[in-house]
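Please annotate this fold before class:
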Amino acid sequence: MTIKCITFDLDDTLWACEPVLRRAEQTCYRWLAHYYPKITTRYNQKQLVENRLQYLHSHPDQAFNFTQIRLDWLAQLADEFSYPAHMADDAFHVFWLARNEVTLFAGVLESLEQLATHFRLGTISNGNADVNHIGLGKYFDFSVNVCNAGAAKPEPEIFHYAMQQAGCDASEILHIGDHPQQDVLGALNAGLFAIWYNPSRDVWLEDKKPTVIIQSLDEIEEQAHFL
């Protein structure tokens, strides 16, 4: 079967996630300190992150939807300090803007430009990065996330939703991501082909093997043509 569509994970596949989220948390905290200082007087940044994680752990049914659970947590925070309800939306927007300030891995643009001439491209992400805001939207035909799919990786439903958006059968789609369970096993269990993006050359520990393992994104096109 010929591969017609290639889908990408975003965080830690096209850019490093941890420094982006760390900077976004810092930006949001500084904004809160300026506009809603009672919160930052009560909580330093580390304590505020711990407060959010406690909220997340107490709402496991929402834990997969990072956008909604952050909004709900911010709303609770606004209520706790008697701030107006719009604080939650405003604070989330500040976080979201910073969260979308990413530094692409070397070779990402070149790989996307080349692949887009031969395949339909899409994204499948559990996060809330926005490829259009980042400036990558022109390369992708569709973007799938928790909000529009109603499910998160590695659940098969999010991959099935991507199949609908792509207009392709599972056997015509190749998914690429860094996470062994969420990306590789999730895609394989949904019937897709799966590339494990493994630039650090970690050891694969799962019984089911990825279709292909790569260390560089410029290997994708050659591997896709072999399938």
Observations:
- The mean pLDDT is 96.
- Residues 28 and 107 are 30 Å apart (CA to CA).
